[in-house]
Queue: 2 jobs
Job 1
Amino acid sequence: TVTVAGLLTGRDVIKSLQDNTDAYDALLVPDTALKEDEDIFLDNVFLKDLEEATGIRAVRTESTPQGIIDAIECLTGAGSQQ
């Protein structure tokens, strides 16, 4: 199945962040926006390409509330305190 997030392209993300990269520490990318077992968008842009183009760390995130929480904890180091 294809979800709406699955139609998001890496170039769209890069374009939307083009002049506003200083405002972000990391970009959480829902797993539904990427191929099932790869860190690649519909338009063949990899997460590493996104990072190189924007200078922002890109993190694949499970598309659930817990997935977002886990990603934030991982980025802040909060998960290692448990």
Note: The radius of gyration is 13 Å.
Job 2
Amino acid sequence: MTQKLLVSVTDITKNYRNKQIETKALKGVSLSIYEGEFVAITGPSGCGKSTLLSIMGLMDTASSGQYTISDIDTSHLKVDQRTMIRNKHIGFVFQSFNLIDDMSVFDNVALILEHRKTPKSEIKERVERVLTQVDMLARQHYQPNQLSGGQQQRIAIARALVGNPDLILVDEPTGNLDTVNGDKVMALLEKLNQDGATIVMVTHDSRYVRCANRQIQLLDGEIITEKQLEVVA
């Protein structure tokens, strides 16, 4: 069965200017992501991993090149158009969780649906469904600061899932977790991928690359290797 192309990145560059200094964060990166893949983007600090993820998440713009997601060319869109596409097609899981401390777990997860003006009954059903998926339904009335780091990351994953995105982007999901909680979060991401989610993950931790089925390695803003990985049973 032929996989459907979901993401196309073509000759993307990203330059940052600080006074008289120009830094080339990405230098002509091209890659494709297909539906149902779990792709790990790896490389040393400062190689451009998070910059690439931010561009794919429409939270940053490329200096040049083309980025297409779900057959939408995002290259020349306005800020509000990019925001609409991000909210509809992309779920983002951050290393630092980015939960709102004075809101309950339920309300944190529901926020994107409220922005879409989803009916309250549907919000309740969808939030409870994704909280069940990440085994956090019993904590729905808690606030983030009442939860462990591993639990907060599960809530962040639920928030990324609730909008039924085409693509889930995950930035260093175990970076703020101990080994036990990191293993649990990665097992959850593997299960979500097995259930059909398309995931692109930036990670510095070589132990978790094995969870993906493809690895893209960056160095100094360029792709130096790209390989299929054997699925670990």
Note: The two ends are 22 Å apart (CA to CA).
